[in-house]
Amino acid sequence: MTGHRSVVEEYAWLVPVLVGTTALTLLIFLEPSWGANAAGALSFPVGVLAIVVSVLIDRGYFRRLRLPGAFLLWQRRAVAASTAVLLVLGLIWWVLKREQDPFDYLSGKVLIGYTDANYPGWHTRPNGLPNADYGFDVALVTALKKKFYRADFEWRKVSGLNGREMALTTGEPEVKLVISNFSITPERQQTIDFAGPYYQDVQGLLSRTGNPVPSANENVLCGVSASTGSATIEGLGWRMESQPSLDQCITDYVNGKYAGVSTDMSILQAYRKERSVPGKVVDLRVIGTEQYGIGIPNNRPRLCRALNEAIEDFLADSWNGAFDTFLAPAGVRVANKKPQHTTDCEHAGPMFLKR
After folding, report:
1. CA 5 to CA 212: how far, in whole Å?
2. pLDDT value at residue 80
3. I need a labelling partner for 316 at 20 to 30 A (CA). Which of 76, 94, 118, 232 fits?
């Protein structure tokens, strides 16, 4: 019947529209933190196009339009090609964005990054012996083993505090997790994810006088390079100098180079007691709570949720025992150290859209 188009020919253009709409809807559900932004950006041009098409339909433009057979063949080919392109792009996106199963990721040999095997109460390796690590962070890993039973956890040292984040972003050295007094901060969350928190602390000061406000001849503190809180401490009147390790800060403090040392209070309390360091540790009360989390690679919400479940079990079943075994004997007081619960995991997405 010449001059009449079949239903398939009449409405073939709807196919890529439906495929694209379905893909965008799935994107919003799967990646709400940035899929919604994509939908919002498309809503204006689509709305304008809808108005234009409605006006053309009202004026009978499409009824007057007569298309030659060659154009209709081109239209069908264009519909098939655009639909195929959308499906292929969707498949590629799904493969690239699909996160590995957490239990597969944490199976076999699993390397955990840490900065120093000489943090009293937290992570100590007697005489440098492998597999002899003990401390509060090590107790957390023991608790993780109950959930991730296929994992063979091993510790791998990273270079300095900056090395924790670099290991997760660059793979040098290659680690799958970082557990090392790793404070959760908005700046770090732009490039990596965190599970937790599993411990909370405050910024402390170790000094001979215990005075949080320096006198004229007592105003230089030592802090560890890349640690949090230094800028705020300088606002109190102290001057901060950085050293690559807390060991170096403590040594220089004992030798009289610095008036004090500032880092997380629990770490300072443990150092002071174990090494009989002179002075007093006080809460500076300047930057709020330090939340310790497990550092993981960026865009790993499934891994984060699985780890949070294990941390929740640790908080409920093992946290008190680990604190009493490792931190209390080191001089750390329990007040306000235990988180009530873990925080929600971040959604996967580009860094500039991560919340």
Report:
1. 85
2. 66
3. 118
Q: Is the pLDDT score of 55 beyond 80?
A: no
Q: Which of 126, 125, 129, 103 is nearest to 115 (CA)?
A: 125
Rounded distance between C-alpha atoms, residue 322 and residue 1, angstroms:
83
Helices H / strands E in the chain, number of each = 13, 11
Q: Which amino acid is at 209?
A: T
Pairwise pLDDT comparison (196 vs 71), residue with the higher score: 196
Average pLDDT of the segment spanning 170-192: 92
How crowded is the C-beta side of 314, counted as CA atoms within 13 Å? Answer: 30
Task: Answer whether 270's CB lies under 8 Å from 232's CB.
Answer: no
Tell me the CA end-to-end span of the chain in Å, nearest whole number: 59
The answer to whether 270 and 327 have CB atoms below 8 angstroms apart is: yes
With contact defined as beta carbons under 8 Å apart, do 112 and 156 qualify?
Answer: yes
| CA distance linking residue 157 with residue 114, whole number of Å | 5
Q: Break the chain down into helix, strand, coil percent, rounded to 5.
A: 50, 20, 35
What digits encode the pLDDT tens for the residues 268-293? 999 999 889 999 999 887 767 889 99
3-state secondary structure at position 28: helix
CA distance 268 to 250: 9
Beta-strand relationship, 193-207 and 289-296: antiparallel
Q: Which domains does the chain have, with CATH numbers?
A: 7-97 (no CATH), 100-355 (3.40.190.170)
- Average pLDDT of the chain is 81
pTM exceeds cut of 0.85: no
Using the structure block, give the residue that is written with the tokens 């639909």: 83
